[in-house]
Amino acid sequence: MWQESRATDYLFIAFGIWLALLSFYLIRTVGHWRKITRSTRGQNLDQILENILARQNIEAKRIQELSEGIAKLETIQKGNFSKHAFIRFNPFEDTGGDQSFAIAFLDGANNGIVISSLHSRGGTRIYAKQVLGGKPKTHQFSKEEKEVVEKAARQS
After folding, report:
1. Which domain covers residue 18, as residue numbers?
2. Cα–Cα distance measured from residue 125 to residue 113, given in angstroms and rounded to the nearest whole number
3. How many structural domains compose the chain?
4. To 5 degrees, how large is the angle CA 105–CA 111–CA 113?
5. CB half-sphere exposure, 76, CA atoms < 13 A
6. Do 88 and 114 lie in a common domain?
7. What's the CA angle centered on 116, arms 114 and 118, to 5 degrees?
8. Are strands 112-120 and 135-136 parallel, antiparallel or unpaired?
9. Of 143, 156, 134, nearest to 102 (Cα)?
10. Whether residues 96 and 132 fall in one domain
C-alpha cells in the first residue's frame, strides 16, 4: 500500500508539472495572439491576414519604386563631377615658390576638365582643357596636368 501511494504521488507530481508547463505555454501563446491582434478588434483571422498581405504588396511596390529611383540617381550621378585632384608646382626657375597649380574635375567616366595656372614674374596665365575618358580631347596635357588627371581618375 505504501508503494502504491508513492507511485500515485509521483504520478500526481508529474501531472502537476505537465499541467504547469501547458498552462505556461498557453498563457504565453494567448498573450502573443493578443499582441498580434491588438489593433484588429472585430476581425477574423482571414481579414487580418488579407490586411497583412495588402500592406505587404503596397510595401513591395514602394520598394520597387525606390529601387528604380536609386538606379536613375546612380545614372545621373555618373555625369556629375565626383573626382577631383589638385597639385601645386613651380614651372619656371626664375620664380620662387609653388604658385602655379593644376586642378582636375572628373565624373564617373573620367570625363571633365583640367584647369592649370602658370605663374611667372610677367603675369599669370590660366588654361582649361577638356578631358575625355582620362585623356586629352583636343590639346595635349602638360606633365602636371597629366599627373593631376591620373590622380583624380584613381579615386573611386
Report:
1. 1-36
2. 16
3. 3
4. 40
5. 6
6. yes
7. 170
8. unpaired
9. 143
10. yes
Query: pTM for the full model?
Result: 0.57
Each of the 156 residues of the chain gets a pLDDT tens digit; together they read 556 678 888 888 999 999 999 999 999 998 888 787 777 667 777 887 888 899 999 999 999 999 999 999 988 887 788 899 999 988 877 666 788 999 999 998 899 999 999 888 788 899 999 999 989 988 899 999 999 999 999 987
Residue in the block written with cell 580631347: 137
The DSSP annotation for 84-123 comes to EEEEEE---TTS-S--EEEEEEE-TTS-EEEEEEEEETTE
Residues 56 and 7 in one domain: no
Query: Any idea what the Cα angle at residue 155 is, between residues 150 and 156, rounded to 5°?
Result: 140
DSSP state of 137: S
Grid coordinates belonging to 131: 578631358
In whole angstroms, give the CA distance from residue 85 to residue 99. Answer: 16
Residue 8 amino acid letter:
T
Burial class (CB in 10 A: 0-12, 13-18, 19+), 103: middle
Chain centroid to Cα 73, Å, comes to 13
